[in-house]
Specification:
This protein is of the alpha/beta class and 183 residues long. It has one domain (4-176): 3-Layer(aba) Sandwich (Rossmann fold). Helix content is 34%, strand content 20%. It contains seven helices and nine strands. The protein has a seven-stranded mixed sheet with strand order 5-2-1-6-7-9-8, sandwiched between helices. A two-stranded antiparallel sheet has the order 3-4. α1 (15-27) packs parallel to α6. The radius of gyration is 15 Å and the shape is globular. The two termini are 28 Å apart.
């Protein structure tokens, strides 16, 4: 059965942290909704690379997806306290849907009161607020997947594929991209 995933694109997002999940989830045949947090569909990342979102966040905010994925980057600081994002994360968590946060995005889990009692990781720059973060590249705890940063983007994306579809499809995609653990 096809799965639907929401990727939240915010100004200042880390490009690889968005592109790796977009690419690998597309290969897994996940229907992707890329939502801009602003009214503009063209969203500029931290390095000046622009991605065109398929929707604005406002258009899809009330929908439930199989996964919600948030790339990190300096733009996360602008999302902190955004009630729409907090409510989206809380609603998906209550529904048992997957939430994936990479780099600084686990700060949004803190804001949504979803970090307590789970094992997670985050970018080292977040340790002041996320002082229980472990140093693993990717951590899966229930329906929450966290990752340290850009260098673990592919591993993060493969963990999302695994959560959504299981080991067989994950191995197929890992082999297709010559993931170092499979080639």
């Amino acid at each position: 059965m096809p799965r639907r995933a929401l990727i939240i694109l915010h100004p200042g997002f880390e490009e690889m942290e968005a592109i790796a999940p977009i690419d690998l989830l597309s290969r897994a045949k996940v229907e992707l909704v890329q939502a801009s947090t602003s009214d503009a569909l063209l969203v500029e990342g931290r390095s000046g690379i622009r991605l065109k979102a398929t929707h604005t966040f406002t258009e899809i905010a009330s929908e439930i997806f199989d996964a919600v994925i948030i790339p990190g980057g300096p733009g996360i600081m602008e999302l902190r306290g955004d009630v729409r994002i907090v409510e989206c994360l809380q609603r998906h968590h209550r529904s048992g849907q997957l939430i994936g946060c990479i780099c600084a995005a686990p700060l949004l889990l803190l804001d949504a009161a979803l970090i307590e009692g789970i094992t997670y990781t985050a970018h080292p720059s977040c340790t002041k607020e996320l002082n229980d973060a472990c140093q693993d590249a990717v951590v899966v705890d229930g329906n929450i997947i966290t990752s340290r940063g850009t260098g673990s983007s592919s591993e993060f994306a493969l963990a999302i594929v695994h959560w959504l579809y299981g080991e067989e499809r994950t191995k197929e995609i890992a082999a297709a991209i010559c993931w170092p653990h499979n080639c």
